[in-house]
Design goal:
Layout lengths: L1 H24 L5 H21 L2 H22 L15
Helix pairs in contact: 1-2
Keywords: Membrane, Transmembrane, Transmembrane helix
GO biological process, one term: vesicle-mediated transport
Family: Belongs to the PRA1 family.
């Protein structure tokens, strides 16, 4: 799902740009403007992630990972290998 990957990376880039611009423009002095920009960025991120179906890609990745983990646990041999006894040997 390449579009989901692009969506996830672009949402991270969106927040990084927001942090950079916030520091550069000095939005700490204007808390209301900062709050409005944060809400706008949150809405844009949510729309981007839903539109590009990122949640389904994450669900598929977690499902495959969990299935592989269960199969690995099922096929793993847990009993120790029987050691030769140290008693009398012929």
């Amino acid at each position: 799902m390449p579009l989901a990957l692009v969506g996830l990376i672009s949402s991270l880039a969106l927040w990084d740009i927001f942090r950079f611009c916030s520091e550069r423009w000095g939005l700490d002095c204007y808390p209301m403007a900062r709050q409005i920009l944060v809400l706008t960025a949150q809405c844009a991120t949510a729309i981007l992630l839903i539109f590009l179906n990122v949640q389904m890609a994450l669900f598929c990745a977690l499902s495959v990972s969990y299935s592989v983990m269960i199969l690995h646990a099922a096929f793993r041999k847990l009993t120790p290998v029987k050691q030769p006894s140290r008693g009398r040997q012929k």
